[in-house]
Amino acid sequence: MEKKIENIPDRNGKKRVVIVGGGFAGVEMIKRFDARKFQIVLIDKNNHHQFQPLYYQVATCGLESTSIGFSFRKSFQKKKDVHFRLCQALSIDSENKYLTTTIGTIEYDYLVIATGTYTNFFGNKALEETTMSLKTIAESIYIRNRVIRSFEMAVNTHDPEERKRLLNFVIVGGGATGVELAGALSELRKYILPKDYHDFDLSRMKIYLVDGLDRLLNMMSPRSSEKTANYLKKMGVEIVLNAQVKDYSDNKVLLANGTVIPSSNVFWVAGVIGNGLPGLDKEVYGRGNRVLVNEYNQVKGQTSIFALGDTCLMSTEKYPNGHPQVAQVAIQQGKNLVSNLERIESQKTMRPFRYKDMGTLATIGRNKAVIEMGALKFSGFFAWVIWLFVHLMAIVGVKNRLFILLDWGWSYFTHDTSLRLLIEQKR
Ligand SMILES: Cc1cc2nc3c(=O)[nH]c(=O)nc-3n(C[C@H](O)[C@H](O)[C@H](O)COP(=O)(O)OP(=O)(O)OC[C@H]3O[C@@H](n4cnc5c(N)ncnc54)[C@H](O)[C@@H]3O)c2cc1C
Description:
Bound molecules: flavin-adenine dinucleotide
CATH class of the domain at 125-270: Alpha Beta
CATH architecture of the domain at 125-270: 3-Layer(bba) Sandwich
Shape: globular
Number of helices: 11
Helix content: 25-40%
Largest sheet: 5 strands, parallel
CATH topology of the domain at 125-270: FAD/NAD(P)-binding domain
């Protein structure tokens, strides 16, 4: 075994739970653990939890990036036997029960893989290198800068072709993120940019939302898809369906049907793929590279390794292809696993995971959202208010909630935001 990770105290007779990933699942577990019973080690390649549902608002100048990120060390200051290490998990040795990371190895009694997903480019390296994805706060900030810079360049250029490319925004993927991004860009065009660029014709800005399927929001009912498409069309978004993106090079998006869209700004939000860890058998990975688990989130063939949230696939009668990859599944699985680890330690049988579906929601812009909760399906202003409330309450920390409420309230009543500074990284 390589060198051990420094300074993790002795277990003092307690069982050590190593959690890889401080996303919705990992954080929920740490909140619920009784530190008198377990020692917790959290491994994450970032020093903060990221609230992914609001990335698109950071990317479109609607929210401060700091409002949707939460430092692990600050969040767990009062949890004395919780130890955070900033590093990347590399591989698992399940026989000897240790995890190898970029800063050394660590032994575990229980290992939790809660590593989420990464953007799926379907094996197309060129698209991976040339398009922008929205999977981290850093990427959201990058997109925000690109959007602002594109407008400045469009104002400055003498070349009409270059201006067209800079003002064509192409979003690939008509799921919730694509819809939300398209709606937010459209509102930027309508309410905010005209104030900043009063000497520039903004009607030249075009927003394309491209999807390979025949409708948007495929995870919702056809009725909600239709409502969403109608809202977006009214907001001036060009919806291109049944159109797969084949290539993107020389600032041109090539669709499978031969259509070419010139653009310097292509956002790839067309899907995700499970983010497992090396060291497990190949048979452990199922559809979408998700780790196969049983009803207790135990990894196939393992008793001390668990996988949770987006990265796992638990096949049930209702969800034969796994649960939807949403925050609620990760949170509920985290909660169930804490209770099961406590049950194992007190020689009780584990309880199977049962998903309580709280509904699916997507916002399309100011005053517009679609919601499905079982048989209940509705859209419009009331749905939008619920969307705001649900997201606000899910944010960690009173201060962040207040700041977000202030940003939202300010932009709602003034039709303006104040987050359009171009601050790019320099050495
Ligand atoms: C743009 C976007 C919008 C979304 N909107 C919604 C929404 O509106 N509603 C909703 O319910 N869901 C939404 N989702 C999905 C939701 O965010 C996920 O379902 C949820 O984050 C899954 O939680 P998780 O704990 O499984 O993984 P994540 O939250 O993805 O966390 C994974 C963690 O693992 C860490 N990690 C990964 N690999 C390693 C490694 N090798 N070593 C160390 N650390 C590692 C990462 O840094 C991260 O902190 C959205 C997702 C995206 C990308």
